[in-house]
Amino acid sequence: MPTLNQQTAVASAIDAIRTAENLLTDQIQASNDTLTAIKLTHEYNNLDSYLSELLHAQNAADDATFANATDALKSRTDGLQADEAAIKKIMADVATAGKVIGYITQALGFIAKL
Amino acid sequence: MKPIFALIAAITSFSFSACAGLTQMQDTAAKFDQGVHTVSTAEMNLFTQVQAAECSRNFYVQGFDFATVPRDKTTGKYPERPPLDLRSNTCVHLELTDEQLALRQKLMQTITLYADAIQTLTNGTSDTNLSDEAKTVAGKIKDLGTQQKFTSTEVGVGAVLNAALVTIATMVIDHSSYKDVKSAATAMQTPITNVVKALKAENSADAIGLASKADGLANEMRTSLSAARDNTGAASFLDVVSTRMALDSLIVTPPNVAQLNATLDAVVKANDALAHSTNGGAIPEIADLISRAQQASTLFNASK
Fold it and tell me: Which one of A1, A63, B126, B300 counts the least CB within 10 Å of its CB?
C-alpha cells in the first residue's frame, strides 16, 4: 500500500497538472490563431494523458500496481520537461506561460518524491 | 369494567402497539434499503462512465492527431501515422482498470449489503432472508479488507477504510447477533461514515478526470472551429452550432458528482437517524435520502 507521503505527492501532482490544464484551456478557448490553438491543444492532451496515469496511480490497490504506475510516471518526466519548453515557445502571454510551467514544475517535484 | 376485561384490553392494546412499532420499523428499514440501492445504481453508473470517458477520450485524441498532422514537406503527402480507424471498439482501461473498478464496486456493495441486513433485522433476529449469495459476497469483502486490499484516494485513510469494511461485512454475515435495527445502526455508524468518505474522495477524483477529458474535447472542438473559420469564414457559424450540439451530447457532466456525494452524505445521516429511532415511523432523513437518491439516479442514468 502506498505510504502517506506517496499518496500526498500523487494528490498534489494531480492538483498541479489540473491547474495547468485549466490555464491552458483558457488560452485555447480564447485563441485567435489556429496554429497556436492546435499546438496548445496537443500540449493539453499530453497533460491530460499524464493526469490519467496519475489517477491510475491514485487508484492503485496494491504495491505492485503502484510501483508500476510510479515507474511509468517517472519515465515520462522528460516528456513533461519538453512540454514546459514547448509551452514557453508557443504561448504569447508570457505571464500565463510562466504560471503553466510553474504548475508543471511543481508536479515534477511531487513525482520526484515517489 | 371487570379486572379481567381490563387486563385483556391492556394486553391487546400493548400487542397492537408493539406490532405497529414493528411494522413502522419494517417500513422505515425498507425505505432505507431502497434509498441505498438507488444511490448504488447512480454510483455504479459513475464508475462505468469513468471507463467510458477514457475510451472515448482516447479515440478523440487519436482523431485530433489525425486531423492536425502536417503534410510531409518533401512529398506533400500526409504520413501514415497517426492512424485513424473509425471501426475500432477496442479499449484498454488504464486510468481505472477493471480490477480497480471491481474493488470500487465492492465498496458500494458493502453499504447495500448492510442496508439489506438492516431490513432483514426488522423481520426478527431468526430471519434468514439475507441470501447465501449476499453472505458470500460479504465474506469476500471481509477477506479483502483483512488483506488491506482496499485503498482510498483520500490520503492516509487506507487502514481505517479496510477496518470499516471488515466491520460492516462481519455485521452482514452475523447480523442476527444484533438485537434490533437501532443497535446495529449505532454500531455501524462510524464504519459507514468511513466507507462513504472513501467513496466521496474517489468520486471527487473521478470528477477531476472527467473534467479534464471534457475540457480536452472542448479544446479540440474549439481549435477545429478556428480552422473552419479560416477556411469558410461566416459559413463556419454553422460549424459553431453543430459543435455546440455535439459537445452537449458527448461530454459527461462532471458537476453531477457533487450531487452524488451529497446523496452519500444522506446515507450517513439516514443511518444516524436509524441509530436514534426506536419505532421507525416518519424519519425525515430517510425521506431525504430517497429523494436525493432518485435525483442522483435520474441524473446519472441520463448522463452519457
Answer: B126
